[in-house]
Amino acid sequence: MNNWFFNNFWIKIVSLILAVITWFYVNEEIVKEKHMTKQLYKSSIINRVQIPSYGVKPIK
Q: Which is it for the CA torsion 12, 14, 20, 23, positive or negative?
């Protein structure tokens, strides 16, 4: 019964470590993307407020 745990023990440990590192990396990338999206949204709103388009006709 205990043989399944100790069979290829070091390979299991290395794969667990790689899985945890990958999880942290992907999680950090998701947080960065959310932050960039928020920042882009805020900057687009600020640009619309600061630069009014009085007298400018829309391009068709």
A: negative
